[in-house]
Amino acid sequence: MIIGCGVGHIWAQETPSLEVETPSSLSVPLLLDISRRSLKNFLEDGPALEAYRRPDETIDDIEDAFTIGALRGGYTLIWDATACRLVGVVDLKLSEPNDEASPRSIPNQPKSPYLLLAEGYHPLTGSLGAFGKPLYFGFRIVDGIPEFLYNHGALQVEERLWLEGDGYILKHRFTVKDPKNAILLRFPESWKALITDASAGTWNGQTLSVSVEDTAKVVLTYDLLPKSEREEAD
Asked: In this structure, is residue 122 part of a structural domain?
């Protein structure tokens, strides 16, 4: 059931959180907290920053970010409507994202709170039909899960994010509507290292190739728990 929809406005202030109870029929036993806010731009990679570059070569802040977390979880996801992608995953044990802080603005911080940061261009950039900058046009909640809608050139994309287990299992779903060709999803090496499963496709290094038949639902599973903590849990 779709219970909400947004449009591509730039909101400069934090909006109230949306708490969504997830149905027990889904394997998502966590209460999700979803907020929309403006953040200082914390990205460091040149190609990833291109989505925010102004004509005068200055870099915009991340002014239309969605933050997604689980009330009992230790991680927050940041999906940005300007770049139309997941731009960061924050380890809440180290720090929480806010309007003032970024890895570059805290010189004495011993360790960045950002477990994952966007690198490179949009993951779909290498796919046939993906050209120009992605264009965001909506947001909705489907069965308790946030879904982001955008076009990347000729590709119509639906992207979902949610957390499972104790909040350290990230599920990342891509759907491309009626593509004419297979799609390619490319991820930074640091992201690929945390991906434990892909529901469809074949890996070639950091790139997942997905056939036309499987583009209706490609779900990636990430294990966000640090290796040392996973070993202790075992």
From this structure: no
Please check whether residue 127 lies inside any domain of the structure. no
Instruction: Check if the beta carbon of residue 138 is closer than 8 Å to that of residue 5.
Output: yes
Number of H helices, E strands in the chain: 3, 16
Condensed to tens digits (0 to 9), the pLDDT of residues 142-191 reads: 988 999 999 999 999 999 999 998 889 999 999 999 999 999 999 999 99
Helices (H), 125-192: 189-192
The answer, yes or no, to whether residue 104 has pLDDT greater than 70, is no
Give the whole-angstrom CA distance, residue 149 versus residue 158: 5
**DSSP string across 64-83:** EEEEEEETT-SEEEEEETTT
User: Do 113 and 160 fall within a single domain?
Assistant: no
**Closest C-alpha among 40, 59, 61 to residue 104:** 40
Q: For 222-233, give one letter per residue: b (16+ CB within 10 A) or e.
A: bbbbeeeeeeee
pLDDT digits (tens, 9 = 90+) for 116-148: 999 999 999 999 999 999 999 999 999 889 999
Q: What is the pLDDT of residue 228?
A: 62
| pLDDT tens per residue across span 52-71 | 999 999 999 999 999 999 87
End-to-end Cα spacing for the chain = 38
Regarding whether 175 and 140 lie in a shared domain, the answer is yes
Please tell me whether residues 31 and 67 are part of one structural domain: yes
Give whole-number Cα distances, 119 to 79, 88, 191, 194, 206, in Å: 14, 10, 9, 15, 12
